[in-house]
Structure formats: structure tokens, C-alpha cells
């Protein structure tokens, strides 16, 4: 049985992957979702993922989880049979004004979480993570806010620190030898689709699939389209 290991993004847990776990399990895959605990670096998150993964697996990372997946590939490339990176990035923090603005935004969210709580912080964070039209979808928004509220302020602060101190993974992408797929919401404003085409240019033989009418939270915004993309690609590449 093929094992699929899912890596969640910032302040996300199994809920961000639930639709994919349900469908892939029905299709006969063994599915595992990694919990990073209180890890405060992408390297430590990668070590946790390695410890909780079998000798060989399909590795799928969303957002921060995509960066964690690249750190797994840096350390144990032979463990990964297939790699799927979703709504993510690969560059280190920019040293210019854009980088300073990113740090300020991240630290402002941490301060909001400290002062007002995780759910209130999540209300602000969610505004740029899903399509504006999906903010009217109460079931989706409540699922996201419930997920955020399950994380502690300390976990949130640690994960933000990990992202601020993220390493550049250009060298990892160039070195990849396993079948690799990039998936991104076509209207993801945080990790835009164009960046995924840039990453794909660094990985020989890789593909890019755009999820229509989706923002950053593609696995929850358009679960059926994501499931279809995953299954089609896995079935065409797994031998």
C-alpha cells in the first residue's frame, strides 16, 4: 500500500487535508498528517516529518508545509517517491522593504493572537487567505477558524519565527529527481501561481496544475478539484 504523508501549513492541522485524506483513503492509499508540535524551525518540522514517515512515501505539503517538504527533500531525498508542493514558496525572506513589510505583518498577527486570542487573530488572517466571495461561506470559514483556534499562541509564534527565518530552497528544487507536481489556486494572492511556474522551471519534468476559483486555502476552498488533480497525477506517475 502506498503511503501519502501530508504536511500542513501555518497554524493548520488535519482539517486542512481532511477532504484529501478521505478520498485517497477510499482509493486505497494509507494517509498520515504530520503534527509539528511546538517546533520553531522548518528544519525541526522536517525532522518530525521524517520521524513519522515510512521509508518511502508520497510527500504533499501545503503553504508552510511545502517549505517543510523541501527541507525533508534536502535531508532524505531517497525517502520521497513523489513530491507535491501546493500554494507555497522557496525563497528566503527578502532583505528589502518587501521583506520588512512581511515581518511586520507576521509580528502584528502574533501580537493580535497574544492580546485577543487565536480565533480573533484568525478572523484577520483569513481575509487574504481565501477568495473574498468565500468569506460568505460560513461552513468553510468556521472550519478554518476552528482549526486555528486549536493551535496555541506559542505554536503560532514559533511557526511565524520559522517562516521569517526560512532558508532558500532553490538548490533543493534543482536537485530533485523524483516526480514532482506543483498545485496552486489560480487566485492565490499570498503564494501566486506564477511562482509555481518559476519553481517548476527548476525541476526537470515537473508539472503545474492551477485550481480554478481558489485562493490560498485550495484544499478547503476547492476540495473536489484538488482531489481530482492529486488522483489523476498519482495514477499517471505511480508504477
TrEMBL record:
<dbReference type="InterPro" id="IPR000073">
    <property type="entry name" value="AB_hydrolase_1"/>
</dbReference>
<dbReference type="InterPro" id="IPR050266">
    <property type="entry name" value="AB_hydrolase_sf"/>
</dbReference>
<keyword id="KW-0378">Hydrolase</keyword>
<dbReference type="InterPro" id="IPR029058">
    <property type="entry name" value="AB_hydrolase_fold"/>
</dbReference>
<dbReference type="Pfam" id="PF12697">
    <property type="entry name" value="Abhydrolase_6"/>
</dbReference>
<dbReference type="GO" id="GO:0016787">
    <property type="term" value="F:hydrolase activity"/>
</dbReference>
<dbReference type="InterPro" id="IPR000639">
    <property type="entry name" value="Epox_hydrolase-like"/>
</dbReference>
<feature type="domain" description="AB hydrolase-1">
    <location>
        <begin position="4"/>
        <end position="229"/>
    </location>
</feature>
<protein>
    <submittedName>
        <fullName>Alpha/beta hydrolase</fullName>
    </submittedName>
</protein>
Amino acid at each position: 500500500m502506498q503511503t501519502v504523508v501530508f504536511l500542513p501549513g501555518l497554524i493548520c492541522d488535519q482539517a486542512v487535508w481532511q477532504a484529501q485524506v478521505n478520498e485517497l483513503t477510499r482509493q486505497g492509499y494509507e494517509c498520515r498528517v504530520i503534527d509539528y508540535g511546538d517546533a520553531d524551525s522548518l528544519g525541526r518540522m522536517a525532522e518530525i516529518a521524517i520521524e513519522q514517515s515510512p521509508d518511502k512515501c508520497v510527500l504533499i505539503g501545503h503553504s508552510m508545509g511545502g517549505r517543510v517538504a523541501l527541507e525533508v527533500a534536502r535531508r532524505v531525498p531517497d525517502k520521497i517517491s513523489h513530491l507535491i508542493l501546493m500554494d507555497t514558496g522557496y525563497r528566503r525572506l527578502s532583505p528589502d522593504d518587501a521583506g520588512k513589510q512581511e515581518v511586520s505583518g507576521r509580528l502584528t498577527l502574533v501580537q493580535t493572537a497574544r492580546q485577543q486570542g487565536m480565533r480573533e487573530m484568525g478572523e484577520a488572517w483569513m481575509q487574504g487567505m481565501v477568495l473574498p466571495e468565500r468569506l460568505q461561506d460560513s461552513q468553510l470559514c468556521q472550519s478554518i477558524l476552528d482549526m486555528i483556534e486549536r493551535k496555541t499562541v506559542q505554536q503560532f509564534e514559533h511557526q511565524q519565527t520559522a517562516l521569517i527565518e526560512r532558508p532558500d530552497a532553490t538548490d533543493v528544487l534543482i536537485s530533485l529527481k523524483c516526480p514532482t507536481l506543483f498545485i496552486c489556486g489560480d487566485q492565490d494572492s499570498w503564494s501566486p501561481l506564477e511562482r509555481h511556474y518559476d519553481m517548476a522551471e527548476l525541476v526537470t519534468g515537473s508539472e503545474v496544475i492551477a485550481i480554478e476559483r481558489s485562493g490560498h486555502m485550495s484544499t478547503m476552498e476547492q476540495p473536489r478539484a484538488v482531489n481530482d488533480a492529486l488522483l489523476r497525477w498519482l495514477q499517471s506517475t505511480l508504477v
